[in-house]
Design brief:
0% strand; globular; mainly alpha
Length: 425
């Protein structure tokens, strides 16, 4: 039996895929310049970051300013993996990060099971247990990863260079997202119990801490290739328009299916009323943690994509002022609107760095940082619900089930019998 596809949904996918293919053709034939291609890639990356924040803030109700910190973690982690492969000709970054992420993930899962069975354990002791387990798992992962560097390097070297680079790049981006998710889980253990405003301050502090660590990554953390405050160079420019488009489509599908599921409705119920959600048997802490971790994973994923656009990373790109960009995009597009977030992200990239830079007179390019906020101010005054409000594109819009219509005589008789039955029966 073939699944029936709604006409509007089919039209949405035809337009979306046609637009992606059209942009790729324009890039391939040289009609679309590298400048505009880069802006489109940044728009797609910002869409992924902002969709993660929209899940945390727009759908789950947690005011977070830490999205940029997880974005930085994913960017630098993925860049280090591909840098070591492209410049140092070995898979040391790939294998160490893969084993660390894998074993730390297993450790977090096992410790969570253990803590759930330990009655009366205070939060501080539980957090200390998590930290000890993570440190042990990370150390074991580093040691095993070192042993596997040569075999994996030889296996990848046997492949065509371009194919090997794409494989390393794909794993690097995914591992960057996973690392950001694991860090967010650990960070969320003590801070997710805070109220919305206090949680926002705590996450802002996290972003500042990440930025300071990146400033001293070559000395304090021991990653000399990151060059600390001087900026990391030599990162392969592997991110293409097709890569970011594929990741964006996958993120849209995952979020759409999640939000339309019972799990997604539980996430939204926490935003609406935590007390009512608890009364209905929903584990509020679990839903907050899940939304925060998944949103942080998307930030890390986007960071990995961004790191390979220009081939250069600098800690100033991830300062706390820039951390407001995803928040502006989410509010501008509409809280709780996937469609609005995507459109606002592309508008942010194309208008701020594209049209305003070109239209403003020479020497007045920095005035775009005045014009753009004024535009946002007017927008918020005239339409406080955001650009799209509660509107969603056809595929993203939740379709309610059609009302039951009896067709056979037996079904009609059964419906009449139920309607005519006394209320006490």
């Amino acid at each position: 039996m073939m699944m029936k596809i709604d006409r509007q949904t089919l039209g949405f996918w035809i337009v979306l895929l046609g637009l992606i293919i059209l942009i790729q053709i324009l890039v391939s034939v040289g009609i679309l310049s590298p400048f505009w291609e880069t802006l489109l890639k940044i728009g797609a990356v910002m869409s992924i970051v902002s969709l993660g924040l929209n899940l945390i803030y727009g759908f789950n109700g947690q005011f977070s300013l830490g999205q940029w910190g997880f974005y930085a973690i994913g960017a630098y982690a993925a860049a280090d993996v591909t840098y070591r492969w492209a410049q140092m000709k070995n898979a040391s970054g790939l294998m160490v990060l893969f084993l660390v992420v894998l074993l730390v993930g297993v450790a977090l899962f096992l410790i969570a099971k253990l803590v759930s069975r330990m009655r009366g354990l205070d939060p501080l002791s539980a957090f200390a247990l998590y930290i000890i387990g993570v440190l042990i798992a990370a150390y074991i992962g580093v040691q095993i990863g070192i042993l596997l560097i040569n075999p994996v390097t030889q296996a990848l070297s046997a492949l065509p260079p371009n194919l090997a680079m794409q494989i390393v790049y794909l794993f690097a981006v995914l591992l960057g997202g996973c690392l950001a998710a694991e860090v967010s889980y650990l960070f969320g253990l003590p801070v997710l119990t805070l109220g919305s405003d206090y949680f926002g301050i705590a996450t802002l502090g996290f972003t500042i801490i990440v930025k300071v660590l990146l400033d001293n990554s070559d000395t304090l953390l021991g990653f000399e290739e990151m060059k600390g405050a001087r900026g990391m160079v030599g990162i392969p420019k592997t991110t293409s328009w097709l890569w970011v488009a594929i990741f964006l489509i996958l993120v849209i599908i995952v979020l759409r299916n999640l939000l339309h599921s019972s799990h997604g409705r539980a996430i939204v119920s926490v935003r609406e009323d935590e007390i009512a959600a608890k009364a209905m048997g929903i584990d509020v802490a679990q839903q907050k943690t899940f939304a925060f971790v998944l949103g942080s994973f998307l930030a890390g994923l986007a960071g990995g994509l961004y790191a390979h656009i220009n081939g250069f990373l600098h800690p100033n790109t991830f300062n706390f002022i820039k951390s407001f960009d995803p928040m502006i995009i989410v509010v501008f597009g509409g809280l709780g609107s996937v469609s609005g977030t995507i459109m606002a992200a592309f508008t942010w990239a194309l208008v701020l760095e594209g049209f305003l830079r070109i239209l403003l007179p020479a020497g007045f390019e920095t005035w775009r940082f005045v014009v753009y906020p004024l535009f946002l101010l007017v927008m918020m005054l005239l339409r406080p619900q955001g650009l799209f409000g509660g509107f969603e594109f056809p595929y993203l819009r939740q379709i309610l089930p059609k009302p039951y219509v009896p067709r056979t005589q037996e079904q009609i008789s059964l419906v009449h019998a139920v309607e005519d039955a006394p209320e006490g029966d």
